[in-house]
Specification:
The protein is an alpha/beta fold. 32% of the residues lie in helices and 24% in strands. It has three helices and three strands; from the N terminus they run βααβαβ. The chain has helices at residues 23-31, 35-40, 52-59; strands spanning 11-15, 42-47, 64-69. Strands 1-2-3 form a three-stranded parallel beta sheet. Helix 3 links the parallel strand 2 (42-47) and strand 3. The chain starts with 10 loop residues before the first strand and ends with a strand.
């Protein structure tokens, strides 16, 4: 059997303000991924917002390891 976890990235850098699917929708989908996937792949969110409510919403996803400001 092939180990699909070897194809999973170690880190995903996620911009909250994305086209097509916004970052919050991505976080909801990510939360539904298998535990082994989430354990291997960490999320780092990039954001230009200084809105504390939005940042708190991001950290509500336990898989998010950091929120970094966009340059």
């Amino acid at each position: 059997a092939r180990n699909h976890l070897s194809e999973v990235p170690d880190v995903i850098f996620l911009d909250i303000n994305r086209p097509a699917i916004d970052g919050f929708s991505f976080l909801l989908a990510y939360d539904g991924m298998p535990a082994a996937f989430k354990k291997k792949c960490k999320l780092v969110v990039l954001s230009s917002t200084d809105n504390r409510h939005n940042i708190d919403d991001v950290y509500a996803c336990n898989s998010v390891k950091a929120v970094l400001p966009k340059p």
